[in-house]
Fold each of these.
Amino acid sequence: MNTRRTAVVTGAASGIGAQLAIAYAQSGVNVVVGTYPADPHDPEEVLDQVRQAGGDAVVHEVDVRDPNQVDRFVQRAVDQWGRLDFVVANAGVVRLHPLADLTDDAWDDLMSVDLTGVMRVFRSGVMRISGHGALVAVSSISGGVYGWPNHAHYTAAKAGVLGLCRALAVELAPRGIRVNSVIPGVIDTAQTQDSVNSFGRSGLDQAGARIPLGRVGRPEEVARTIRFLTSDDASYITGQQIVVDGGLTVFMPIS
């Protein structure tokens, strides 16, 4: 019988998800690396780094807008290693749309990934966790704390993630399943480097100058926080949100 704990992580071909797979490998946790088929990043590079860290992982393509694909993705952990312990809903998209140009289709499509997709992954996960376990969703400082102009759908989805996690923390506590969320601040990922829909390289550099720690965050810093929340060190933490932002949200810009 496999005694190593097992996790599924969506959006794990790059950024926070990729770094989480590596962090789990360093802790002896098996990982199903979830990747979106159209993602340009090569998940085999993540597998190589996981193996170099002494871990075991498999890649599984999944579109979180499709509940059947989500079920197959989560089941992969059980088929591969005979168990599921941790579920991390990290997949997300960012799209710039001023409200006047925000169509119903654009709203629904982003919500289906960034909010409903989280619910689908969690729903499938709790059906397969047989003992105690942990769920973590990735929210954002945009929606989790601040508003973000021209990103109303993204901001609403990320705010909704927090409510979802609070409700599920109470609902699943009798089963010994903990549910938490992380709220990343400005993190240097491929997504935030997108100059059309997000900050872009120059925007990240400017943001870093305004953050109390003097820089934007690194994906591995968020990943280690997620790893902590699913670990036994966080055994009495549920229904919480941890902000990982270098002090941005506690900084008063008016003095």
Note: The chain has a mean pLDDT of 95.
Amino acid sequence: MSCRTVAETYYRELKRLLNESGCHFVRQGRGDHEIWYSPITDKNFTVDVRCKRRHTANGILKLAGLPKAF
């Protein structure tokens, strides 16, 4: 599996998990980043669209107040 396919898979799954937990897209950030809002933590957080590592994906979930999934 190429890095590009892995990155797309993490983002797609991450986006699904965030949406299911009630998080929502707020706005486009700088470059390939998006700003999302979590009702669990009542804070905005950054999501990298090119999320290539499971550690980064899990870190984003932690910022959203969700458990590790990758």
Note: The longest helix spans residues 3-20.
Amino acid sequence: MKFDSPTAVMQFALQQARQGIGYVEPNPAVGSVVVDNELNLLGAGYHEKYGEAHAEINALREAGANARGAILYVTLEPCCHHGKTGPCTEAILQAGIAKVIVAQEDPADWVAGQGIAQLRAAGVPVEVGLLAEEARELNAPFIKLVTRKQPYVIAKWAMTWDGKLATRTGSSQWISGEESRAVVHQLRGRMDGILVGAGTVATDDPLLTARPSGPRVATRIVIDSQANLPVDSQLVKTIDQAPVLLCTSHSAPEHKLHCLREAGVKLWQGTTNDSGRLDWNEVLTELGRRQITNLLVEGGGEIFASLREADALDEVHVFLAPKLVGGTEAVTPMEGTGLATIPQQADLVDVEVMRTGEDIYLKGRIRRA
């Protein structure tokens, strides 16, 4: 295989990296390619699973002796520290690589340019910045975890064409079709955490598991300041399938906490504001401490609204079903007070529009400065 440009080589490295999503967290998804001076492919690889060989090692192994004097492309700065695996910089130097092209620097404190500096100090030229934006988008969850110590927050909901999550009676099963629900299960299967509010548990009694299972088993997280999670809920009854974490307040009744502990529920208690709600910054920092990289939020409307007000959302996935419900008391995705005026700039960027059966699947990233 021969590439027609350095950009094409890095694009191939990014394709390699995407194969690790869901398997490598809390590590980043990384791809690497080794080519000769004519851009002929000598080896390629990606970080396949947390704790196993990094992308550069797999690419160098495939290239073998041909790596000497070759060029190595990698989507993230090579590591230079001893962790679960040895430093990639040492392997690159031992292989005799003549030049390294990096998409972006690793923002983690334990790398932060040191890998690039080590290679340059050893006489290996390093270029940085080829397809940097694409690389940053790929590893946005990792970047947020290592820089802000919080998970990447993805909101997901299904609604009717007139913008309802449920009818005035709370009926919501099923707004979206089978194809959309299959996509949701795939999404759940690569998450570290799936979060809902106490209202969603009371109304829907959800399982919040991926069916069929995916590469990860997400912790099921309930925001419930008064610990009202029923011990006979599906979440608690299936605790052997996936862990449950209850985020509650210091004022939650001890007898309720005791019953939930006895049932195997993990508990975390945080402070509340004047309205009795948990502080999102505190909650998300705790989830980041637990190494939750990707967090899927599935409702309800107050949860979505409060996350938006806290500027805590990173990405939104919406399944729009061709149904009309109506009703001033019917549930909408964003409750709360809401904005007073329409934003003059789009809130979502990198928007994608797809079809899932009869539904329309929309996803986009929250615009950041």
Note: The chain has twelve helices and 14 strands.
